[in-house]
Amino acid sequence: MMKLTPGQHAFWTRFRAATGCDADGPRFVDAFGDNPDMQDDLAALVMAGDKRASASLDRWYDDETRPRPGDLALILDGAGEPVCVIRTLRVDICRVSEVTADFALAEGEGDKTLAWWLDAHRAFWRREADRHGFDYSDDLAVVCERFERVWAPD
Question: Domains in the chain, start-ordered, CATH in brackets?
């Protein structure tokens, strides 16, 4: 399990008490996006129920670290504060060019179209490629994760 900060641990304890979950901790603690404003915006979409999926480059995972159905994750906002707990429902791996309109809709971002999704994610992954020294291509493998929000404080 992840090592939690005191605030994250307190949040997880509240989640366990409210839901009866017996997991010692989440498998992942993460924020969606690469800057605080984006992380706030995407956390708000999860809280509103609009964002029910996320995509990340498969190059960042191996078989042990790739999300799996049933995983619990603690989602953070742009300040690094926990906002909710999600559960992974499904994980598919495909090329960027193979992502579907249905998946783009489930991500809940922008105008929820595949065209918007491709533009936004290409820009995001090009920033990652520049930061980490690899070449971006629409042939890169993407982990397409669908999730449900299982708990957030009142």
Answer: 6-151 (3.10.400.10)
